[in-house]
Design goal:
It is a single chain. By secondary structure, the chain is mainly beta. Helix content is 13%, strand content 60%. It is built from 2 helices and 17 strands. The strands form 2 sheets. Strands 9, 10, 11, 12, 13, 14, 15, 16 and 17 form a 9-stranded antiparallel beta sheet that branches. Strands 1-2-3-4-5-6-7-8 form an 8-stranded antiparallel β-barrel.
Length: 239
């Protein structure tokens, strides 16, 4: 079948438009890849600090929040140029700042950053994409089976109060006397005591969250005998 010059031109133009569209999508995806929450550990001279960098696009700007241990810094000067993300966090009351640069690949951001205490020295970092406490706040339907074969489906409610997690388990099972709650790098740990059929049991939830799913383990120990075990848990966001 012969192809006219006009037909050839139309196809050529269509292909160019298609390629340009794909290219634009790739660029958009690449730029958007930095959005989310990134976690890593900073190894200092005397201690190791849990760090978290949250990046959100709003009103055409990349708003960033950096947590280092108990300290938090804010900046809306995040940018992506030639595939490299950069942002600076000024330290209040001081002529110092944290300065980050990094590239995203396979859900990891690697690069360098400057810590005020180390002057202009570059520190290498490799952060893993995770979820922040604010992102997991809400209600989660959990599913697990006890060692004696009973199916249990508690609803886990998570709130944020003063930057810390507050949790509540609603179920028909025994009431939990919660003694400790921790959240870091997408993992929630809850330690509690329960009284089940006259037995005192120490339990510990260790749950790893994604945007819509959660899975993990419940560790338990019978206080009277010291017997231990673990139960696999899975779940999903419901609110």
């Amino acid at each position: 079948m012969k192809m006219t010059k006009l037909g050839s031109l139309v196809i050529t133009v269509s292909l160019l438009m298609l390629l340009n569209g794909v290219s634009g999508q790739e660029v958009t995806k690449k730029q958007g890849a930095v959005e989310g929450t990134w976690a890593w550990k900073h190894k200092g001279d005397t201690k190791t600090t849990d760090c978290e960098l949250a990046i959100v696009k709003k009103d055409g700007k990349l708003h960033c929040r950096f947590k280092a241990g108990k300290k938090t810094y804010q900046s809306d000067s995040g940018s992506v140029k030639d595939g490299t993300f950069s942002v600076m966090f000024p330290v209040k009351g001081e002529d110092k700042q944290y300065a980050f640069q990094g590239k995203v690949s396979n859900n990891k951001m690697t690069g360098t950053y400057q810590v005020p205490s180390s002057g202009a020295k570059d520190v290498k970092w490799s952060a893993k994409k995770t979820v922040s406490l604010e992102e997991v706040a809400g209600q989660w339907q959990l599913y697990f089976e006890t060692p004696d074969g009973q199916s249990v489906e508690p609803v886990l409610s998570i709130e944020v109060e003063d930057g810390k997690p507050k949790v509540d388990f609603s179920s028909d099972g025994p009431e939990l006397d919660i003694s400790e709650i921790k959240f870091g790098q997408g993992v929630l740990t809850v330690k509690a005591d329960i009284d089940f059929q006259g037995q005192a049991i120490l339990i510990e939830y260790e749950l790893e969250f994604k945007k819509k799913d959660v899975d993990g383990v419940i560790y338990f120990e019978l206080k009277a005998t010291g017997d231990q075990g673990e139960i696999e848990v899975e779940g999903e966001r419901i609110k």
